Amino acid sequence: MAPIPITIITGFLGSGKTTLLLNLLPQLRAANPTYKLALLKNEFGDVAIDSQLATSSAISGVQELLNGCICCNLVGQLSEALAELQKSVTPDRIVVETSGSAFPATLAMEVNRLARETGNYTLDGVVSVIDVENWKGYEDTSYTARVQVKYTDLIVFNKWESCDERRFDEVLDRVGDLEVDIAWVKSDKGRVPVDVIFGVDGGLARTLTEEATARNEHGHDHSHDHQTEVEVLSVTLKGKEGSAVSSVKLMALLNAAPKDEVYRIKSVLTASSTVRSSGEDESLPTPPHPSQRYILNWAFGRWTFTPLADETAEHNSSDHAPLRMTLILARYESTKWTKKLESGSFLELDGEDKGELIVTKIS
Which of 9, 116, 321, 347 is most exposed, with minimal Cβ within 10 Å? Predict the structure, then answer.
């Protein structure tokens, strides 16, 4: 059989990697209804969230690597995960979606190594997604954000629609400061033509070898900056069967979280009443609402609630608890946010039983 093409999608926290991926599916199915796309997803924290969203969106197969980084302490699991997807799905293509902190060059080298040793894969290219609205801010402080852009075959500029041309030009200038000549494209609200993302024939990605580790882009900087740029809290809210999270308190958290302290909030939860994604008209009447299971995805002050379909098998990492949440924070913010959450101001069950809240720092 021909080697399975692998596309790596990377980008800093909240840039829109999963949205980009999910917008490729309708295009693929329109061209070939039997096309099978598999996903290997690396997530911060100890709960699978984006991968459940992908599973509910007709991706043929999903493997997830949790609570670590696919380019360093989880890299040894890459071979096994790819092999499992190949065996269980026989996909036409595999997308490896990294966590927001991954170094794409290190991951590309590992895929190249597996391709040489097994003959089962070929690295098609590395795609980096940039959030135009916020990249100028976090690029200043994040070594990882700069490396993700420097070692890539294609840049997708996302979330540019709400910015003026000056902001976009500033981001282009900052990318230019990295002294790399990389093709780029603007997304249309997270959508890019599939033939632009797949088939980039990434020359840079495939030529990366272990020799690159001799350069200072990796090595010490990787261990020092890469693992300490963010802090991660794992949150569990326990309760009796049928318990639901107070939607009023939860919405207060989403509105109050400052984006210079909180980079991402991801959760699987049961809401007590109707919840609204950011930007929805709050003056509209709230319809009757049975307790509903949702996937919450919050990034830089904007969020979406996606109902978890009844037929979707929930990942055992969330285990039907009223709430399982991952908060990805800026450095030195975990202690403050642990106290805020434990105060009961934002997360509790609806009704007399407020539930048992457990907040754990995991990185």
Answer: 116
